[in-house]
Known about the structure:
By secondary structure, this protein is of the alpha/beta class. It has helices spanning about 20-35, 50-60, 95-105, 125-135, 165-175, 195-200, 235-245, 265-270, 305-310, 315-320, 345-355, 390-400, 420-430, and strands at about 5, 15, 35-40, 65, 70-75, 90, 110-115, 135-140, 145-150, 160, 185, 205-210, 215, 225-230, 250-255, 275-285, 285-295, 300-305, 330, 360-365, 365-370, 380, 405-410.
Amino acid sequence: xxxxxxxxxxxxxxxxxxxxDKSISHRSAILAALAEGKSEIFNYSxxxxxxxxLRCLRALGANIEEKGSGIIIExxxxxxxxxxxxxxxxxxSGTTIRLLAGAxxxxxxxxxxxxxxxxxxxxxxxxxxxxxxxxxxxxAREDEFAPLKIEGGALRAIDYAPKVPxxxxxxxxxxxxxxxxxxxxxxxxxxxxxxxxxxLREMGAAITRQDxxxxxxxxxKLKARQVAVPGxxxxxxxxxAATLIVPDSELIIQGVGLNPTRTTILDFLAAMGAPVSxxxxxSRDGELTGDVNVHHAPVKGGKISGALTARLIDxxxxxxxxxxxxxxxxEIRDAKELRVKESDRIAVMAENLRKMGAEVEEFPDGIRVxxxxxxxxxxxxxxxxxxxxxxxxxxxxxxxxxGETVIRDPHCVxxxxxxxxxxxxxLLKAPNEK
Length: 434
Ligand code: S3P
């Protein structure tokens, strides 16, 4: 069984660029396959999850060519997809299965979609319910879990309020809304990531947002386009945290996606006292990008609840593992959703933080991790339970621990960030290291 060893670090410095944003990559590929003409997507995420989306789109008849760090997709139009010969395999990717469920709901054929063991345990009724209301026939194991059998057809526009704040549910409804006549409306009190809306607007769809309601006019003709995917800000989080853990650290992260629905992590770190700044802000293909600078400083800690929890959802594993390096610790509440991610992230964070000697209290909807006063973390053997964000969060936490931290099954980082460990090592050995 492969393992990665992490030793205490003295400095963490450098200038880096990150792989393309995972959420934007999934959407740009799915929408390109529904558009008419050839789209070119530069800096497409090299993650296994985004590869799962391409594998499914190919099985649905899309022509996809890989070109350097980008891809070219020949769109088939809204109704040009072909019935797949086998069950579509979404791998570990919740975004792939839920977004494709929306697009499959509008097709004139029956398709089955499933994924790995973790994905088959994740809740799917949240997308089945609105898609059924729109007219799709969907069957699922125990009426909740993949494999999903989706028989698409003529869809009705709906006015829908998801029960949990979820960009995946919103996107599934909007993708199905492309096939319905009239206006599909999704209400969301918490403004979740809006990459689907921005991409649809760029491609010529009539889509607006007002007072928390997203309105999409159905049956648009989507224009193929060229799009450059910005660096993944959720991947940046691990390195931002590393500079706050390791003394004498400084980083410049270039070309990161700075969509305001994703930058809550920068605001939260800044509110804790982290010297984070953004320069060279620019708008590209409908999305904001820029460079993020940060250097080491002691941070206070804080509480994350309500809308903040939803907006930091992918950053919570790193924030929990940063807890022992903050003055007052980190408390996360209203985070039941973390229990149905790639792993039960609350339980897996608690288990591994305890192994490292952190002070941990687990709640049904969250976790509290004690700050510096509870003592320095000790290196331990971490079991990430095949969850990429857990593996990366604990690799970073290990940089400040006493002794060696061992990450079991480190290959799982490839789900979102295949070159994570290489980049980490290059920053520890940077030429300007003191
Ligand atoms: C994502 C939305 C979030 C997030 C996931 C990616 C997306 O999930 O956790 O990693 O690309 O839409 P939910 O929609 O379930 O909150």
